[in-house]
Amino acid sequence: MAVTDREAPASVLKAPSKRLTSAELSTTKPGTPGGIFMRQFWHAIGRSQDLQPGRALPVRVMNEDYALYRGHSGRVQLVQQRCPHRGALLHLGWIEEDDIRCVYHGWKYDCSGACIEAPAEKAGFEKNVRIQTYPVDEAFGLIYGYFGPGEPPAFPPYPESAGDGFIEVWPDVTVPCNYLQSFENSMDEVHVAFTHAPGGSHARISVDLPIITAEETPWGLMRYGKRATGLVRHTLHYAPNIVRTVVPPQFGMDGIGGWVEITFHFTPVDDENHRWIITTKVRVTGDDVEPYWVKRREFYAKCAAAPNVDQLVQDIWSGKVPYADVRHPVLARVQDIAVQAGQGRVENHETETLGRSDAGLALWRRILERELRIIGDGGTPKKWQKAPADVVPTIGA
Ligand code: FES
Ligand SMILES: [Fe+2]
After folding, report:
1. Residue 186's domain is classified under what CATH number?
2. Has residue 362 been placed in a domain?
3. Total domain count for the chain?
4. What pTM does this model have?
5. 94 C-beta closer than 6 A to ligand 1
Protein backbone atom coordinates (compact mmCIF):
# COMPACT_ATOMS: atom_id res chain seq x y z
CA MET A 1 0.00 0.00 0.00
CA ALA A 2 1.31 3.43 -0.94
CA VAL A 3 2.03 5.70 1.96
CA THR A 4 0.17 8.97 1.63
CA ASP A 5 0.98 12.10 3.57
CA ARG A 6 -1.94 11.47 5.90
CA GLU A 7 -0.84 7.95 6.69
CA ALA A 8 2.83 8.62 6.98
CA PRO A 9 4.29 8.68 10.48
CA ALA A 10 5.41 12.06 11.73
CA SER A 11 9.04 11.10 11.44
CA VAL A 12 8.66 10.61 7.68
CA LEU A 13 6.90 13.94 7.19
CA LYS A 14 9.45 15.86 9.13
CA ALA A 15 11.97 17.46 6.81
CA PRO A 16 15.41 16.02 7.48
CA SER A 17 17.34 18.27 9.83
CA LYS A 18 20.00 20.28 8.04
CA ARG A 19 21.92 20.86 11.22
CA LEU A 20 24.59 18.45 12.33
CA THR A 21 23.49 16.46 15.36
CA SER A 22 25.25 16.93 18.69
CA ALA A 23 26.80 13.47 18.23
CA GLU A 24 28.26 14.55 14.86
CA LEU A 25 29.45 17.90 16.21
CA SER A 26 31.11 16.46 19.26
CA THR A 27 32.64 13.20 18.08
CA THR A 28 36.41 12.85 17.95
CA LYS A 29 36.50 9.38 16.41
CA PRO A 30 39.29 9.01 13.86
CA GLY A 31 38.22 9.56 10.27
CA THR A 32 35.07 11.55 11.13
CA PRO A 33 34.92 15.29 10.36
CA GLY A 34 34.97 15.95 14.12
CA GLY A 35 37.95 13.66 14.60
CA ILE A 36 39.85 15.24 11.71
CA PHE A 37 39.04 18.74 13.01
CA MET A 38 40.28 17.94 16.51
CA ARG A 39 43.47 16.31 15.25
CA GLN A 40 44.67 19.66 13.85
CA PHE A 41 45.65 20.77 17.35
CA TRP A 42 48.03 19.91 20.17
CA HIS A 43 46.23 18.25 23.10
CA ALA A 44 47.25 18.25 26.74
CA ILE A 45 47.57 14.58 27.71
CA GLY A 46 49.03 14.61 31.21
CA ARG A 47 51.17 16.24 33.86
CA SER A 48 54.94 16.23 33.41
CA GLN A 49 55.38 15.41 37.10
CA ASP A 50 53.36 12.19 36.75
CA LEU A 51 55.79 10.71 34.24
CA GLN A 52 59.18 10.17 35.81
CA PRO A 53 62.20 8.98 33.77
CA GLY A 54 61.94 5.25 33.12
CA ARG A 55 58.15 5.22 33.52
CA ALA A 56 55.52 4.35 30.90
CA LEU A 57 51.78 4.96 31.09
CA PRO A 58 48.75 4.15 28.96
CA VAL A 59 46.86 7.13 27.61
CA ARG A 60 43.55 7.26 25.74
CA VAL A 61 42.86 10.36 23.67
CA MET A 62 40.02 11.00 21.19
CA ASN A 63 38.91 7.35 21.17
CA GLU A 64 42.40 5.92 20.54
CA ASP A 65 44.99 4.36 22.83
CA TYR A 66 48.69 5.07 23.10
CA ALA A 67 51.72 4.36 25.26
CA LEU A 68 53.48 7.36 26.76
CA TYR A 69 56.90 7.07 28.34
CA ARG A 70 59.84 9.13 29.53
CA GLY A 71 63.31 7.96 28.65
CA HIS A 72 66.15 8.13 31.12
CA SER A 73 67.45 11.30 29.41
CA GLY A 74 64.13 12.98 30.34
CA ARG A 75 62.80 12.84 26.81
CA VAL A 76 59.07 12.07 26.47
CA GLN A 77 57.89 9.64 23.79
CA LEU A 78 54.39 8.90 22.55
CA VAL A 79 53.94 5.68 20.59
CA GLN A 80 51.24 3.29 19.45
CA GLN A 81 49.53 1.26 22.14
CA ARG A 82 50.53 -2.28 21.08
CA CYS A 83 53.63 -4.09 19.96
CA PRO A 84 53.41 -5.09 16.27
CA HIS A 85 54.74 -8.57 17.06
CA ARG A 86 51.76 -10.05 18.93
CA GLY A 87 49.92 -7.09 20.30
CA ALA A 88 51.29 -6.79 23.84
CA LEU A 89 50.73 -3.46 25.57
CA LEU A 90 53.87 -1.40 25.09
CA HIS A 91 53.44 0.59 28.31
CA LEU A 92 54.24 -2.62 30.23
CA GLY A 93 57.69 -2.53 28.66
CA TRP A 94 61.11 -1.65 29.94
CA ILE A 95 62.60 1.74 29.24
CA GLU A 96 66.24 1.36 28.20
CA GLU A 97 67.93 4.74 27.79
CA ASP A 98 65.32 6.44 25.57
CA ASP A 99 64.14 3.23 23.89
CA ILE A 100 61.32 0.89 24.90
CA ARG A 101 61.52 -2.91 25.00
CA CYS A 102 58.35 -4.98 24.78
CA VAL A 103 57.80 -7.09 27.87
CA TYR A 104 56.42 -10.06 25.88
CA HIS A 105 59.35 -11.19 23.66
CA GLY A 106 61.83 -8.37 24.06
CA TRP A 107 61.53 -6.51 20.79
CA LYS A 108 63.07 -3.08 21.25
CA TYR A 109 62.11 0.21 19.57
CA ASP A 110 64.08 3.44 19.36
CA CYS A 111 62.75 7.03 19.43
CA SER A 112 62.15 7.04 15.68
CA GLY A 113 59.88 3.99 16.04
CA ALA A 114 62.37 1.64 14.38
CA CYS A 115 62.65 -1.86 15.80
CA ILE A 116 66.32 -2.27 16.70
CA GLU A 117 66.26 -5.71 18.34
CA ALA A 118 64.12 -8.83 17.95
CA PRO A 119 66.16 -11.22 20.08
CA ALA A 120 64.64 -14.57 19.02
CA GLU A 121 64.60 -13.73 15.29
CA LYS A 122 67.25 -13.94 12.58
CA ALA A 123 69.63 -10.96 12.34
CA GLY A 124 68.12 -8.25 10.15
CA PHE A 125 64.51 -9.34 10.73
CA GLU A 126 63.95 -6.26 12.90
CA LYS A 127 64.73 -3.92 9.99
CA ASN A 128 61.23 -4.47 8.59
CA VAL A 129 59.42 -3.64 11.82
CA ARG A 130 58.34 -0.19 13.05
CA ILE A 131 55.95 1.35 15.51
CA GLN A 132 54.09 4.62 15.01
CA THR A 133 55.42 7.56 16.99
CA TYR A 134 53.64 10.87 17.56
CA PRO A 135 54.91 14.42 18.15
CA VAL A 136 55.01 15.18 21.86
CA ASP A 137 56.32 18.14 23.83
CA GLU A 138 56.13 19.76 27.25
CA ALA A 139 55.13 23.23 28.45
CA PHE A 140 53.40 24.76 31.49
CA GLY A 141 54.07 21.56 33.47
CA LEU A 142 52.04 19.54 30.97
CA ILE A 143 52.71 17.00 28.24
CA TYR A 144 51.05 17.70 24.90
CA GLY A 145 50.60 15.28 22.00
CA TYR A 146 49.80 15.83 18.34
CA PHE A 147 47.70 13.17 16.62
CA GLY A 148 47.09 14.64 13.19
CA PRO A 149 48.82 14.23 9.84
CA GLY A 150 51.83 16.28 8.77
CA GLU A 151 53.67 18.85 10.83
CA PRO A 152 52.06 19.96 14.09
CA PRO A 153 51.13 23.62 14.62
CA ALA A 154 53.28 26.04 16.65
CA PHE A 155 54.23 24.92 20.15
CA PRO A 156 53.24 25.66 22.83
CA PRO A 157 49.68 26.00 21.58
CA TYR A 158 49.08 29.31 23.38
CA PRO A 159 51.32 31.95 24.94
CA GLU A 160 52.48 31.74 28.53
CA SER A 161 50.89 34.41 30.68
CA ALA A 162 53.32 37.21 31.35
CA GLY A 163 54.32 38.53 34.75
CA ASP A 164 55.78 37.17 37.96
CA GLY A 165 54.54 34.08 39.68
CA PHE A 166 54.54 30.39 38.92
CA ILE A 167 52.39 27.75 37.28
CA GLU A 168 50.64 25.17 39.43
CA VAL A 169 49.34 22.06 37.70
CA TRP A 170 46.31 20.48 39.33
CA PRO A 171 45.70 16.76 39.60
CA ASP A 172 43.57 15.92 36.59
CA VAL A 173 39.98 14.82 36.68
CA THR A 174 37.95 12.61 34.34
CA VAL A 175 34.42 13.82 33.66
CA PRO A 176 31.78 11.38 32.34
CA CYS A 177 30.52 13.31 29.32
CA ASN A 178 31.63 14.64 25.96
CA TYR A 179 34.34 17.34 26.02
CA LEU A 180 32.11 19.81 24.16
CA GLN A 181 29.77 20.11 27.14
CA SER A 182 32.58 21.45 29.30
CA PHE A 183 33.96 23.69 26.56
CA GLU A 184 30.47 25.13 26.08
CA ASN A 185 30.01 25.53 29.82
CA SER A 186 33.19 27.58 29.87
CA MET A 187 31.41 30.04 27.54
CA ASP A 188 28.39 30.20 29.82
CA GLU A 189 29.12 32.77 32.49
CA VAL A 190 25.49 33.00 33.58
CA HIS A 191 25.61 29.50 35.09
CA VAL A 192 28.00 30.76 37.77
CA ALA A 193 25.27 32.68 39.61
CA PHE A 194 23.09 29.56 39.85
CA THR A 195 25.22 26.41 39.68
CA HIS A 196 27.74 27.82 42.14
CA ALA A 197 25.31 29.68 44.42
CA PRO A 198 25.38 26.94 47.09
CA GLY A 199 28.58 27.40 49.07
CA GLY A 200 29.16 30.89 47.75
CA SER A 201 32.55 30.20 46.17
CA HIS A 202 31.80 32.43 43.18
CA ALA A 203 29.82 35.15 44.95
CA ARG A 204 32.11 37.91 43.70
CA ILE A 205 31.11 37.29 40.09
CA SER A 206 27.49 36.41 40.82
CA VAL A 207 26.18 39.78 41.95
CA ASP A 208 24.37 40.29 38.67
CA LEU A 209 23.94 38.48 35.37
CA PRO A 210 26.30 39.47 32.57
CA ILE A 211 25.19 40.14 29.01
CA ILE A 212 27.20 37.68 26.92
CA THR A 213 28.61 38.46 23.51
CA ALA A 214 31.34 36.68 21.59
CA GLU A 215 33.39 36.96 18.44
CA GLU A 216 35.45 34.59 16.36
CA THR A 217 39.17 35.28 16.33
CA PRO A 218 42.11 33.80 14.38
CA TRP A 219 42.82 31.58 17.42
CA GLY A 220 39.34 30.68 18.64
CA LEU A 221 36.67 32.72 20.32
CA MET A 222 36.73 35.78 22.58
CA ARG A 223 33.84 36.07 24.96
CA TYR A 224 32.70 39.22 26.71
CA GLY A 225 30.56 39.33 29.81
CA LYS A 226 29.24 42.83 30.40
CA ARG A 227 28.06 43.71 33.88
CA ALA A 228 25.58 46.35 35.03
CA THR A 229 28.58 48.28 36.34
CA GLY A 230 29.85 48.58 32.76
CA LEU A 231 32.81 46.35 33.54
CA VAL A 232 33.47 43.69 30.93
CA ARG A 233 35.03 40.32 31.65
CA HIS A 234 37.15 38.90 28.81
CA THR A 235 37.54 35.14 28.51
CA LEU A 236 39.71 33.41 25.92
CA HIS A 237 38.57 30.18 24.32
CA TYR A 238 41.43 28.75 22.31
CA ALA A 239 40.31 26.36 19.57
CA PRO A 240 39.32 23.64 19.97
CA ASN A 241 39.00 22.96 23.73
CA ILE A 242 41.02 25.29 25.96
CA VAL A 243 39.71 28.12 28.10
CA ARG A 244 41.81 30.74 29.82
CA THR A 245 40.12 32.96 32.37
CA VAL A 246 40.61 34.76 35.67
CA VAL A 247 38.76 33.34 38.66
CA PRO A 248 38.12 34.47 42.24
CA PRO A 249 40.51 33.44 45.04
CA GLN A 250 40.58 29.67 45.24
CA PHE A 251 38.19 27.91 47.57
CA GLY A 252 39.77 26.96 50.89
CA MET A 253 42.77 29.26 50.41
CA ASP A 254 41.49 32.11 52.64
CA GLY A 255 42.38 34.57 49.91
CA ILE A 256 46.05 33.53 49.71
CA GLY A 257 47.14 33.72 46.08
CA GLY A 258 44.34 36.18 45.16
CA TRP A 259 42.56 35.95 41.83
CA VAL A 260 44.32 33.40 39.66
CA GLU A 261 44.53 32.93 35.96
CA ILE A 262 43.28 29.45 35.20
CA THR A 263 43.59 27.40 32.02
CA PHE A 264 41.38 24.37 31.43
CA HIS A 265 42.14 21.82 28.73
CA PHE A 266 39.09 19.64 28.04
CA THR A 267 40.88 16.67 26.53
CA PRO A 268 38.58 14.04 25.00
CA VAL A 269 39.18 10.49 26.22
CA ASP A 270 36.41 9.14 23.99
CA ASP A 271 33.03 10.54 22.96
CA GLU A 272 31.55 10.01 26.43
CA ASN A 273 34.43 11.00 28.72
CA HIS A 274 36.96 13.78 28.88
CA ARG A 275 39.63 15.09 31.21
CA TRP A 276 40.02 18.46 32.85
CA ILE A 277 43.71 19.22 32.71
CA ILE A 278 44.12 22.43 34.62
CA THR A 279 46.92 24.88 35.32
CA THR A 280 46.87 28.12 37.27
CA LYS A 281 49.23 31.06 37.02
CA VAL A 282 49.62 32.03 40.64
CA ARG A 283 50.87 35.58 41.01
CA VAL A 284 52.74 34.97 44.22
CA THR A 285 56.46 35.64 44.59
CA GLY A 286 59.27 35.79 47.16
CA ASP A 287 58.34 35.22 50.79
CA ASP A 288 54.69 34.63 49.90
CA VAL A 289 55.44 31.45 47.96
CA GLU A 290 55.96 29.15 50.97
CA PRO A 291 52.74 30.23 52.79
CA TYR A 292 50.90 29.59 49.51
CA TRP A 293 52.22 26.02 49.34
CA VAL A 294 51.53 25.41 53.05
CA LYS A 295 47.92 26.37 52.43
CA ARG A 296 47.79 24.40 49.22
CA ARG A 297 49.11 21.24 50.89
CA GLU A 298 46.44 21.64 53.60
CA PHE A 299 43.89 21.95 50.81
CA TYR A 300 45.10 18.79 49.02
CA ALA A 301 45.05 16.91 52.35
CA LYS A 302 41.43 17.99 52.85
CA CYS A 303 40.60 16.83 49.31
CA ALA A 304 42.18 13.43 49.99
CA ALA A 305 40.09 13.02 53.15
CA ALA A 306 36.84 14.23 51.56
CA PRO A 307 34.17 12.03 49.93
CA ASN A 308 34.96 10.73 46.47
CA VAL A 309 33.75 13.27 43.89
CA ASP A 310 32.41 10.69 41.40
CA GLN A 311 30.40 8.95 44.12
CA LEU A 312 29.09 12.28 45.41
CA VAL A 313 27.94 13.22 41.91
CA GLN A 314 26.17 9.84 41.62
CA ASP A 315 24.48 10.49 44.98
CA ILE A 316 23.33 13.92 43.80
CA TRP A 317 21.97 12.42 40.58
CA SER A 318 20.12 9.65 42.41
CA GLY A 319 18.53 12.13 44.81
CA LYS A 320 20.33 10.69 47.83
CA VAL A 321 22.09 14.01 48.50
CA PRO A 322 20.32 17.35 47.85
CA TYR A 323 22.36 19.50 45.46
CA ALA A 324 22.03 22.61 47.63
CA ASP A 325 23.37 20.84 50.73
CA VAL A 326 26.63 19.58 49.25
CA ARG A 327 29.81 20.91 50.80
CA HIS A 328 33.21 19.70 49.67
CA PRO A 329 36.78 21.06 49.34
CA VAL A 330 36.24 21.09 45.56
CA LEU A 331 32.61 22.11 45.69
CA ALA A 332 32.65 24.03 42.39
CA ARG A 333 34.00 20.94 40.64
CA VAL A 334 31.30 18.73 42.16
CA GLN A 335 28.66 21.25 41.08
CA ASP A 336 30.02 21.58 37.56
CA ILE A 337 30.29 17.84 37.01
CA ALA A 338 26.83 17.20 38.46
CA VAL A 339 25.33 19.75 36.09
CA GLN A 340 27.39 19.26 32.92
CA ALA A 341 27.69 15.47 32.94
CA GLY A 342 24.07 15.42 34.18
CA GLN A 343 23.08 16.75 30.73
CA GLY A 344 23.85 13.26 29.45
CA ARG A 345 26.98 11.61 28.09
CA VAL A 346 26.37 13.47 24.81
CA GLU A 347 23.81 16.19 25.31
CA ASN A 348 21.00 16.30 22.73
CA HIS A 349 21.09 19.74 21.07
CA GLU A 350 17.79 19.10 19.30
CA THR A 351 15.77 19.34 22.50
CA GLU A 352 17.38 22.55 23.72
CA THR A 353 15.90 26.04 23.82
CA LEU A 354 18.74 28.52 23.51
CA GLY A 355 18.47 32.16 24.54
CA ARG A 356 20.62 35.28 24.33
CA SER A 357 22.73 34.17 27.28
CA ASP A 358 23.90 31.23 25.15
CA ALA A 359 25.53 33.54 22.59
CA GLY A 360 29.04 32.23 23.26
CA LEU A 361 28.33 28.55 22.86
CA ALA A 362 25.92 29.18 19.96
CA LEU A 363 28.71 30.96 18.08
CA TRP A 364 31.18 28.16 18.78
CA ARG A 365 28.69 25.60 17.49
CA ARG A 366 28.26 27.58 14.27
CA ILE A 367 32.05 27.72 13.83
CA LEU A 368 32.39 24.02 14.60
CA GLU A 369 29.60 23.10 12.20
CA ARG A 370 31.13 25.26 9.45
CA GLU A 371 34.54 23.62 9.89
CA LEU A 372 33.14 20.08 10.05
CA ARG A 373 31.14 20.65 6.87
CA ILE A 374 34.21 21.96 5.05
CA ILE A 375 36.19 18.92 6.20
CA GLY A 376 33.32 16.58 5.29
CA ASP A 377 33.15 18.11 1.80
CA GLY A 378 36.90 17.67 1.31
CA GLY A 379 37.58 21.44 1.46
CA THR A 380 40.29 23.42 3.23
CA PRO A 381 39.40 24.22 6.83
CA LYS A 382 40.42 27.40 8.62
CA LYS A 383 44.11 27.71 9.41
CA TRP A 384 43.99 28.46 13.12
CA GLN A 385 46.69 30.74 14.53
CA LYS A 386 48.42 30.88 17.86
CA ALA A 387 46.98 33.74 19.92
CA PRO A 388 49.16 36.83 20.48
CA ALA A 389 50.63 37.10 23.99
CA ASP A 390 48.99 40.46 24.66
CA VAL A 391 45.44 39.10 24.33
CA VAL A 392 44.72 38.22 27.94
CA PRO A 393 41.72 37.42 30.10
CA THR A 394 40.36 40.12 32.42
CA ILE A 395 38.36 39.90 35.63
CA GLY A 396 35.63 42.42 34.82
CA ALA A 397 34.38 42.43 38.39
S1 FES B 1 54.44 -8.94 21.49
FE2 FES B 1 56.01 -7.52 21.71
S3 FES B 1 57.81 -8.65 21.43
FE4 FES B 1 56.23 -10.09 21.16
FE1 LIG C 1 31.07 26.24 36.75
Report:
1. 3.90.380
2. yes
3. 2
4. 0.93
5. no
